[in-house]
Amino acid sequence: MTIRWPAEAIWEQVAPLLPGFTVEILPQIDSTNTELMRRARTGRPEPILLVAERQTAGRGRLGRDWQSDTDAGMATLTFSLGLPLQPADWSGLSLAVGLAVVQSLHPALQLKWPNDVWLDDRKLAGILIETTSAGDLRYAVIGIGVNLQARAADGLRTPPAALVEVLPAADAPSTLEAILLPLVRAVLAFEQQGFGALRNAFHARDLLYGREVVCTDGTTGTARGVDAGGALLVHTAGGLQKISSAEVSVRPVPTDPPRER
Ligand code: BTN
Which of 61, 168, 174, 175 has the most other CB atoms within 10 Å of its CB? Predict the structure, then answer.
């Protein structure tokens, strides 16, 4: 089935903000993040939106895979935004990106630190941000995968959430168009102002706030939001701990018995 992507509409919205911006839609690639990192490292650090209808080697945070559905382009939206970026301080970029995604899609979506998008205590979307140097500049690749339709658990503890649960008409083109301009604006605002001003907005969407959490570095306690640099604050038996490492993953301790599904 041919997907009608809103490439021109997106280009018209974004090009005034990102001179030289292009939009590229591919039927298949290993990973949109891998491809943009390859291009930047071989001298093509251009502002670009790269969308793939199917990824054969999608990547997630912490070296994990990101599984797309076999029903290419229908059940998941996968894309990367690549652009040169020079913020004074990079900390909190991933939170600012996650915030732009949830705010552009639906009020019921929440963020699980640092930038997973959750709905109803299940993961809905993932974000992978990578950077590389390109001459004197740094080039950022912001990769986003959104589950649109219900998917099998595929070895996950619980099946992922799907955007159609809250937006029944959601499809890949409309979801991409809803996210892109707010995302670009958020990244450019972050470049100028950093994360600090977004702290309250993050707290309004913070899935972990006030919940018992377990971190893979052994920290356990009650999540207390984030600091001005986007570090997770956890109230532990030994006092307030800051978790800022991208290598640490956090999960909420379930409060209710698992739902029957
Ligand atoms: C995560 O949840 O760990 C992050 C998942 C990020 C997936 C997206 S899909 C588009 C882009 N290309 C990739 O290979 N990964 C990101």
Answer: 175
Higher-pLDDT residue of 118, 254: 118
Global pTM reads 0.94
Domain 7-195, second-level architecture: 2-Layer Sandwich (3.30)
Q: What angle do CA 53, 55, 58 make, to 5 degrees?
A: 140
CATH class name, domain 212-252:
mainly beta
Pocket lining: 68 vs ligand 1, CB cutoff 6 Å: no
For atom 9 of ligand 1, the residue with the nearest CA is 145
For residues 160 and 117, give the distance between their C-alpha atoms in angstroms, rounded to a whole number.
11
Contact 51, 58 (CB under 8 A): no
Q: Measure the CA–CA gap between 41 and 182, rounded to whole angstroms.
A: 27
Residues belonging to the active site = 61, 123, 251
